[in-house]
Write a structure and sequence with these properties.
- The structure is a single chain.
- The protein is an all-alpha fold.
- The chain has one domain: Helicase, Ruva Protein, domain 3 (Orthogonal Bundle), CATH 1.10.8.
- The protein is built from 5 helices and no strands.
- Helix 2 runs parallel beside helix 4.
- The protein is elongated and about 75 Å long.
- The protein starts with 13 loop residues before the first helix and ends with a helix.
């Protein structure tokens, strides 16, 4: 693989490799934390008459898990692309992070602070990945092209 911008963005650069690896570790740690926190809340929420809370908790657990699995799939796909895996291409479904699965903050407001923090962290991580993807896929403008564009605008 050559360094620099490819048809899939500038993912061949060493700093992008490091970003992917660091984000992968962060995503896996957050997924483990989310699993444990939602499991603990499910166990605590088994009181009779609290079925709406249980349903809200289950829905937000699924949304958070889905959000994290999209992030992890995207990161694994980018790792495969960086490694030159011929089965990982820019047109694969995992090559795009897609649209976010938004949390329902009216429901999340009833959660304990640590659980709200996890949901918010998963949303921020998703936004970060989406911004990274958008930046990598933006066409590179060389300094000469930028200078020519400024000159053309003045004429």
């Amino acid at each position: 693989m050559t360094m620099g911008r490819t048809e899939t963005g500038a993912i061949g650069l060493p700093e992008h490799r490091a970003q992917i690896e660091n984000l992968y570790v962060d995503a896996m740690l957050l997924a483990d934390e989310a699993h444990a926190a939602f499991a603990a809340q499910r166990d605590l929420g088994r009181a009779p008459g609290d079925s709406l809370r249980q349903i809200g908790l289950a829905c937000e657990s699924l949304k958070t898990t889905t959000r994290l699995m999209h992030i992890i799939a995207w990161l694994l796909h980018r790792r495969a692309m960086i490694a030159g895996d011929p089965g990982a291409g820019p047109n694969d479904s995992a090559a795009r992070i897609g649209k976010p699965v938004a949390a329902d903050w009216d429901i999340c407001a009833g959660f304990d602070a640590p659980l709200r923090r996890i949901v918010a962290a998963s949303e921020r991580l998703f936004e970060r990945i989406a911004a990274m993807e958008a930046g990598w896929d933006a066409p590179a403008i060389t300094p000469v092209q930028a200078l020519l564009a400024r000159l053309e605008a003045r004429l």
